[in-house]
Design a protein that fits this description.
Blueprint lengths: L6 H6 L4 H12 L6 H14 L3 E5 L2 H15 L7 E5 L5 H7 L4 E5 L21 E7 L9 H10 L2 E5 L7 E3 L4 E2 L7 E2 L6 E5 L13 E5 L2 H10 L4 E3 L2 E2 L10 H10 L3 H18 L29 E4 L3 H10 L27 H9 E4 L7 H12 L3
Parallel strand pairs: 2-3, 2-4, 4-5, 5-9
Antiparallel strand pairs: 1-10, 6-7, 6-8, 9-10, 11-12, 13-14
Length: 386
């Protein structure tokens, strides 16, 4: 069986440094708010290109805390609207509703599956306070026009950067960043970003983990306090906060993995390039070949290929065929947020493009530890599908 994602193999590829980092924390005997977290926050902030990184418990909390901080400042209040992609993982929307804000769902661009930025302005109302972009599957969702739109309407932009650590965008050129270019990284493009270090991510911890990245001093200060019971000094609570902290072991593991992230992302791009060049089975729709301004997938820095997602009108039959032939696949995602029981008040809504995507998408194996012969075998099996 060709695994969808071989976590054990990925972990082994960082040994013995990974075990050494964990052992270092255990021997030190300090497990929260210590040297490893402080060092990782500085290193990740430097990598992303922002002033502040605040380690938190997971990616969902990172997004929740951003909105909560703006509520504390009075910039947002209950009932304010946040524009968000209809086609996303539910966590993007949970972060909004958890703060009693109102998500305004907008259909995707079928070429990228990301938020269709051309449709955003028509959904802006006097209650709109922010736009959330999701860099879905690892592909940057950004444009100069989006920046201008937000400035014109005085809106905040929040990035859900859970899947795109390491992706870049050439802001001045208004196009996708080539590998090695001077583009800005996702996580630094908007007012604030939520980052996830779930083990399956391109930069994955040994358990849950996340971070808020921002250049906003005040936002960073409030987020850090909110994540620590609302406290800036021990036993002094300025806010009704929560307990959401990145622990020392996860930070130590992430410090081992971060220096290799760009190399790992290059390997993912190489696999994506091979898939795109060689998958030719009838009916399969491949991802957009490359970002605007790029010559190839391998040189397109705006996509880190956290997932390689194809579409087929008979997705379930294709998945069964691949399983029977030893290729493990997953569906990201089978049920759109507006059809989930959790949001039953939306179940009667129709988002045709989003619903089509969720009926047809299938994620193929891709990771930095896939062998060339495995990649070739996946393509051969797919191309025999009829």
């Amino acid at each position: 069986m060709i695994k969808f994602l071989d976590i054990q193999k990925i972990t082994a590829s960082f040994e013995p440094e990974l075990s050494g980092a964990v052992d270092r924390v255990v021997r030190r005997g300090w497990y929260l708010l210590g040297e490893e977290v402080s060092a990782f926050e500085k290193e990740y902030a430097s990598y992303i290109g922002v002033k502040h990184c605040i380690g938190v418990a997971n990616g969902l909390d990172a997004l929740r805390l951003i909105f909560r901080a703006w509520i504390e400042t009075g910039e947002m209040q209950e009932g304010d609207e946040v524009i968000v992609p209809a086609n996303t993982y539910i966590a993007s929307i949970l972060a909004i509703t958890d703060n009693r804000l109102k998500p305004v769902l907008v259909e995707p661009d079928m070429a990228t599956y990301n938020l269709d930025l051309a449709k955003v302005e028509e959904h802006i109302t006097p209650r709109t306070r922010a736009i959330m972009v999701v860099h879905l599957y690892g592909q940057a969702c950004w444009s100069g026009e989006l920046e201008q739109l937000a400035a014109r309407h005085r809106l905040r932009i929040v990035e859900d950067n859970a899947q795109a650590a390491g992706a870049t965008w050439c802001g001045n050129a208004g196009k996708a960043g080539n590998v090695g270019s001077d583009g800005k990284r996702t996580g630094s493009l908007g007012d604030a970003a939520g980052n996830s270090f779930y083990p399956g991510k391109n930069l994955g911890a040994l358990g849950d983990g996340g971070a808020v990245t921002t250049n906003d001093d005040e936002l960073a200060r409030i987020v850090r306090a909110l994540a620590n019971y609302g406290s800036t000094r021990k036993y002094v609570n300025d806010y009704k906060g929560l307990n959401s902290r990145l622990d020392e072991i996860q930070a130590a593991a992430l410090r081992v993995k971060l220096p290799r992230l760009d190399e790992d992302n290059r390997r993912r791009r190489k696999i994506a390039q091979y898939y795109n060049d060689h998958i030719m089975a009838p009916g399969i729709i491949l991802p957009a070949a490359a970002g605007k301004g790029s010559d190839s997938i391998e040189s397109d820095g705006s996509h880190v290929h956290h997932l390689f997602v194809i579409r087929h009108p008979e997705r379930d039959r294709l998945q069964q065929y691949l399983t029977e032939n030893g290729v493990q696949t997953l569906i990201h995602y089978p049920i759109p947020p507006h059809k989930q029981i959790a949001y039953r008040q939306w179940n009667g809504l129709t988002f045709l493009l989003t619903e089509q995507i969720h009926r047809e998408v299938l994620s193929l194996p891709i990771s930095q530890v896939m062998e060339d012969d495995e990649v070739v075998r996946v393509v051969e099996i797919i191309n025999n599908f009829r």
